[in-house]
Amino acid sequence: MHLIIFSNILTPRIKYIFNFIFKDILKAEIEFTGNSQYFLQSEQVKISYGDEPLGDELFFKSTALLFSNKLEEFKPKTISFGEYQVPFPVEQSTLPFDVFAAAFFMVSRYEEYIHQKNTEEEFKPSKSYQHKWKVLDKPVIDEWALMIKSIIKKKHPGFKFHEKKFQHQPTINFNILPGLPKGFLNRTKFVFSALFKKENNYLSSKFDRLTGVGINNEQVLEEVNKIIAAKKNKAFYFVDFPEVPMDYIQINGVAKHFEDQSVGLLRPCASNKQKMTEIKEGLIKLRKIHPAAIPLTSQQLEVLKFPICYLNILNSGITSDYSMGYSNVLGFRAGTCTPFNWYDLQLEKVTPLVVNSYCLTDYILQYLTTESATKTLHQYIDAVKVVNGTFHSSWSLRSLSDHPKYKKLKLLFIEMLNYAGN
User: Fold this and answer.
1) What is the mean pLDDT of residues 333-343?
2) How many CA atoms lie within 13 A of 29 on its CB side?
3) pLDDT mean over 41-63
4) What average pLDDT is seen over the chain?
5) What is the reported pLDDT for 411?
6) Tell me: the pLDDT tens digits for 191-248?
7) To the nearest whole percent, how much of the chain has pLDDT over 70?
8) pLDDT at 193
9) Which of these, 29, 27, 25, 32, lies nearest to 11 by C-alpha position?
10) Positive or negative, the Cα torsion across 44, 50, 53, 54?
């Protein structure tokens, strides 16, 4: 037995969000139809989406968003739903709001497209609708999906959903450091080249070492791998390369720690052709330290702009991304903790890029007391566990070192691993 979904018009948006909620989150088999007679005669569990029900099926009243193929600026109306606000209110429906339009609005980052059309400024989480509606701290789409599941089970007790389990995978990022070439002339040329290129990774790393803040990547990688070795789910490492020739990059000590690890490219977002070249050069360098880095994966912790960043990531051959989150604010940027395929609102189509969302970073935790940070970790892990989602967090490798400055963060990382139970 499976679910049969009816709508008079089956748009790409409708198919996308119904597939995401029912197949990806709830792990149910679904079928779409626009044939009302076929729908009414079917013996499957029936759900309709439109202006009015056809019979006694589960009926969800629709609004205009999912029937449109345009990117239009509008201000969603809202109603209260428990402790928070929800958009797209409707009447005489299974739920008092269009849950599918609301989910699509969030997961597609509709408001960020509009923002980028109007300004070059960075999109601030405090300006987001999710912040205004008080749902930024919840994987609210997954919670709505479980509500729908409960409604289906109540009407059809015999219907079975496939099992979905909680997963946990931290992401860890760091910079590969360049080394000085041999010979006085080559060293002088390299330093001046770095200065003129504003490529200061080398100089800043040397300064960090002198002041005692710098870390030894190889040593910390070895320690972190030992911590994670006993855990079921491994970390995902993201590497940033300096803009210098490969001969000047110290990779041998790092590469040996990645034989059985997942590795991707850090900071690949590109907004022009020059940066596209940098992405491709970065991927070539990545293959030098991890030849088996397939599928190609990326993470962007700075400004993530829609759709240009994801378009350029796709055009570079990257198929999986871990950039969906706010580096300096807690929360679920796309409203979900379930990986999803990115839907491009300009082209109105589902893309092959799989988006994995993170909900907190070490940058945020470092400004909290140990007690408050621990409570926050538990809160977000619990929120993801309840909906059997995937908990992603983002950490800098230096935060996991033994340097006194990062002692609290390293202990929080270990606490997170233990509490997540993986």
Assistant:
1) 98
2) 5
3) 97
4) 89
5) 97
6) 565 555 544 444 444 444 433 346 788 999 999 999 998 777 789 999 998 877 777 6
7) 88
8) 57
9) 32
10) negative
For the record, the structure tokens of 236 come out as 């995902």
Of 287 and 144, the structure prediction assigns the larger pLDDT to: 144
List 320's β-bridge partners, or say none: 297, 354
**Helix (H), strand (E), coil (C) string for the chain:** CCEEEECCCCCHHHHHHHHHHHHHHCCCCEEEECCHHHHHHCCCEEEEEECCCCCCCEEEECCCHHHCCCCCCCCCCEEEECCEEEECECCCCCCCECHHHHHHHHHCCHHHHHHHHHCCCCCCHHHCHHHHHCCCCCCHHHHHHHHHHHHHHHHCCCCCCCCCCCEEEEEEEEECCECCCCCHHHHHHHHHHHHHCCCCHHHHHHHHHHHCCCCCHHHHHHHHHHHHHCCCCCCEEEEECCCCCHHHECCHHHHHHHCCCEEEEECCCCCCHHHHHHHHHHHHHHHHHCCCCCCCEEECCCCCCCCHHHHHHHHCCCCEEEEECCCCCCCCCCCCCCCEEEEECCCCEEEEEEEEECCEEHHHHCCCCHHHHHHHHHHHHHHHHHCCCEEEEEEEHHHHCCCHHHHHHHHHHHHHHHHHCC
Longest dimension (CA), the chain: 84
| Of residues 388 and 178, more confidently modeled | 388
